[in-house]
Amino acid sequence: MKRRSLGPMEAHSETHSIEYEGIEIEYQLIRKDVKYINLRVNKYSQVVVSAAKRVPFSVIEEFVQSKALWIITHLAEVEKLRHAQPSGMLHDGKTVYYLGKPLTLTLAQGSPQITRTETSVHMVTRQIHPQELRSEYLEWLRKEAETVFPKILEQIYPLVKELEVPYPSIQIRNMRSIWGSCTVEGASIRLNLQLMKAAPECIEQVVLHELLHFCQPDHSKKFYRLMEERMPDWKARKELLETEFKDGI
Ligand SMILES: [Zn+2]
Q1: Domain encompassing residue 140
Q2: Distance 233 CA to ligand 1 centre (A)
Q3: In a domain, 90, yes or no
Q4: What integer is the mean pLDDT of 153-173?
Q5: Helices (H) and strands (E) in the chain, counts
C-alpha cells in the first residue's frame, strides 16, 4: 500500500510531483495567504507546500526541487518514527488474537458495538483516539472473558478435585507480567485478561497451575509432578503461550 495516501487530504490542495535522481516526490500544493512559499512534511508523510496566490507555479516547482534532498531525508525520518510506534495501536485491518485465532479488526464510526465472526472482529465506535479505542476493546474482551474463563475452570477443576482444592472464584485483571495468581485464603484465582488471546489449551495450563497452588504453594518438584500427572504436555502449552498470540493490545 502506498503510505502517503493514508493521510487526510488538505482542503483545496492540488497534487503535483517532482523528480529527484529518479525518485518521484509527490506534494500537495495549497494556495493560501502566506508570505511566499512554505514547505513541510506532515506526520502522514505528506509533503505539503503552501504558496501565496501571486507566486507563479514554475517558481514553486523550482523551490520544491531545491528542497528535494531535505524532503527525502525528512520522509525517511517520519517513516522511522511511524515504525517506532507501539504495535498496540488499534487500526483498521490490524490482526488481533481471540482464543488462539488471528482475526482481522475492522473499524467503523457509529453507535458503539463489537461483534465477532469466524474471521474478524468488527468494532463500531465513537472514539477516535487510539488509547480510548484500546480501552473500549479491552472492556469488550473482559466481558467475553467473563464467560470463557469460568467454562475453562469448570473443565479443568475435575483434575484437582481429589486434592480437596476448593472451587475458586475468578478475578480478571489486565496484567503486564504474570498470567495468573491465586489467593488460597480467599479461594480465588486471578487470571490475566491477555489470556483471551491465547488458544484454550494454553489457558487450561494456567488454570491448572493456579489450582495446584492450593495444595502446593511453591514451585517445588512435587508441584511439577502434580502438574505432569494431570497435563503431560503442560510445557508445550506454556511455550506456546509465551511465544504466540501477541497483538500488543
Ligand atoms: Zn506458580
Answers
A1: 95-243
A2: 17
A3: no
A4: 96
A5: 6, 11
